[in-house]
Fold this protein.
Amino acid sequence: MSDELPFSDEQLARMRHQPTAKRVRRALGLSQEEFANRFGIPLRTLQEWEQGRREPDATTLAYLKVIEREPDVVSRVLAAE
Protein backbone atom coordinates (compact mmCIF):
# COMPACT_ATOMS: atom_id res chain seq x y z
CA MET A 1 0.00 0.00 0.00
CA SER A 2 1.19 3.48 -0.80
CA ASP A 3 1.17 6.39 1.62
CA GLU A 4 0.65 8.83 -1.23
CA LEU A 5 -2.65 10.66 -1.37
CA PRO A 6 -4.65 10.53 -4.59
CA PHE A 7 -4.55 13.60 -6.82
CA SER A 8 -7.13 16.31 -6.20
CA ASP A 9 -9.55 17.26 -8.98
CA GLU A 10 -7.58 20.47 -9.47
CA GLN A 11 -4.30 18.58 -9.84
CA LEU A 12 -5.86 16.15 -12.32
CA ALA A 13 -7.26 19.03 -14.38
CA ARG A 14 -3.79 20.61 -14.61
CA MET A 15 -2.26 17.29 -15.65
CA ARG A 16 -4.72 16.58 -18.48
CA HIS A 17 -3.54 17.27 -21.99
CA GLN A 18 -4.76 20.63 -23.20
CA PRO A 19 -5.09 20.90 -26.98
CA THR A 20 -2.49 23.22 -28.53
CA ALA A 21 -5.09 25.51 -30.09
CA LYS A 22 -6.85 26.00 -26.77
CA ARG A 23 -3.59 26.67 -24.93
CA VAL A 24 -2.46 29.25 -27.50
CA ARG A 25 -5.87 30.95 -27.64
CA ARG A 26 -6.13 31.18 -23.86
CA ALA A 27 -2.58 32.52 -23.56
CA LEU A 28 -3.61 35.36 -25.89
CA GLY A 29 -6.76 36.00 -23.87
CA LEU A 30 -9.06 35.67 -26.88
CA SER A 31 -12.47 34.09 -27.21
CA GLN A 32 -12.86 31.29 -29.74
CA GLU A 33 -14.59 33.67 -32.14
CA GLU A 34 -11.93 36.38 -31.75
CA PHE A 35 -9.10 33.89 -32.26
CA ALA A 36 -10.75 32.29 -35.29
CA ASN A 37 -11.46 35.65 -36.93
CA ARG A 38 -8.06 37.15 -36.15
CA PHE A 39 -6.08 34.21 -37.54
CA GLY A 40 -8.32 33.01 -40.38
CA ILE A 41 -9.40 29.73 -38.85
CA PRO A 42 -12.99 28.50 -39.30
CA LEU A 43 -14.70 28.74 -35.91
CA ARG A 44 -16.12 25.20 -36.12
CA THR A 45 -12.67 23.79 -36.90
CA LEU A 46 -11.18 25.58 -33.89
CA GLN A 47 -13.96 24.25 -31.68
CA GLU A 48 -13.34 20.70 -32.88
CA TRP A 49 -9.61 21.02 -32.18
CA GLU A 50 -10.26 22.38 -28.71
CA GLN A 51 -12.78 19.66 -27.89
CA GLY A 52 -10.43 16.93 -29.10
CA ARG A 53 -12.71 15.72 -31.89
CA ARG A 54 -10.09 16.59 -34.50
CA GLU A 55 -6.35 17.15 -34.42
CA PRO A 56 -4.60 19.89 -36.38
CA ASP A 57 -2.17 18.59 -39.00
CA ALA A 58 1.57 19.30 -38.87
CA THR A 59 1.30 22.47 -40.95
CA THR A 60 -1.43 23.85 -38.72
CA LEU A 61 0.55 22.99 -35.59
CA ALA A 62 3.46 25.00 -37.05
CA TYR A 63 1.07 27.91 -37.74
CA LEU A 64 -0.21 27.74 -34.16
CA LYS A 65 3.39 27.86 -32.91
CA VAL A 66 4.03 31.00 -34.97
CA ILE A 67 0.82 32.54 -33.63
CA GLU A 68 1.90 31.68 -30.10
CA ARG A 69 5.30 33.36 -30.49
CA GLU A 70 4.43 36.28 -32.78
CA PRO A 71 0.66 36.94 -32.73
CA ASP A 72 1.00 40.61 -33.72
CA VAL A 73 3.19 39.78 -36.73
CA VAL A 74 0.69 37.17 -37.94
CA SER A 75 -2.18 39.64 -37.48
CA ARG A 76 -0.35 42.35 -39.45
CA VAL A 77 0.51 39.98 -42.30
CA LEU A 78 -3.07 38.71 -42.53
CA ALA A 79 -4.49 42.26 -42.38
CA ALA A 80 -2.24 43.34 -45.26
CA GLU A 81 -3.87 40.85 -47.64
